[in-house]
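Page header: ASSEMBLY MODEL / two components / 290 residues total.
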Amino acid sequence: MRNLIAALLTGIIFGAGLALSDMVNPARVLAFLDLFGAWDPTLAFVMGGALIPSALAYAIMRRIRRPLLHTAFHIPENRVVDRQLLVGGAIFGIGWGLVGYCPGPALAGLVLGTWQTWAFAAAMMVGMWLHSVTDLSIFRGRSNALRR
Amino acid sequence: MEPLNPLVALAGGALIGTAAALLLLLSGRVAGVSGMLARATGIADSGPKQSHALAFVLGLPIGAILVSAFVRTPEVIVTSSIPLIIAGGLLVGFGTRLGNGCTSGHGVCGMARLSPRSVAATATFMGAGFLLVGVMRHVIGG
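Prediction written out in full:
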C-alpha cells in the first residue's frame, strides 16, 4: 500500500515537473532539437536540473542496503551496449523529432487541452504493442557484432 | 512562443529528478515512463506491480493539471500534421520498447548512475532527434 502511494506521489511530482519546465510543449522540445537552426537551450536546464537530485539518489543508494519501503533495489544490471538498444534509441529519437513528444510529456499532456496529444498517445500504445508481438530475433542474433 | 525563464526550467527539472530520487529511495524502482506505461497496460509482464505502475502513470497528468491550475499554464503547441503525429507515436512506442527506455529511464535515471547502456541510448536518441529536426527544417523544409 505504501509503495502504491509512493508511486502515485512520485508520478504527480514528475508530471508537475514536466508541466513547469515546458517539456509538455512539443514546440519547445522541437526548438531544443533544432540544434542546426534557432536553437532554444531551455530544455538543457531541465535535464541539468533533473540529473542533480537523481545522481544524488543513486549515490545514496550505494550506501544503503534497501529502499525505505521495499525489500530490494531493482536496477538494470545489463551493461552491454547492443544493436537492439541503439536501433531502439534511434527509432525513438526519430519519432521524438517528428512531433516533439516523448512518453512522459505525452501522458502528462493528455489533460492540457489538445486532441493531438491523445492521437499521439494512442499511436504510442499501438507502437508498444507492435513491439511486443514482433519477432525481433534479427536484432538479437547479430548483437554480438557490436560487442567485439 | 514565449521564452521560458531558465530558472523555471531548472526548477521543473529538479522536480522531475526529485520524483526519480524518491521512487528509487522509497521503492527501489527506476522512474522510466515508457517501462511504467508498458507495465501499467500489461504490455510488459516484469517490473513493479501493475497497480503501482498504473498509479505512477496516472500521477503524471494529475501533476500537470495541478501546475497548470496553480503555478503556470504551459502553452501546448503541436505543429505536426496528423499523419506525422501517428507516425511519431508509433515510432516512439516501438523504439522505447526496443531500446528499453526513454528520456526518463535512460536520460534522467540511467545517466545519473552512468550506466553505459543509458549513456549510449541517450546519445543515440538525442542525436537522432537533432538530425531529424535538422533535416525536416533545413533540408526538406528549407
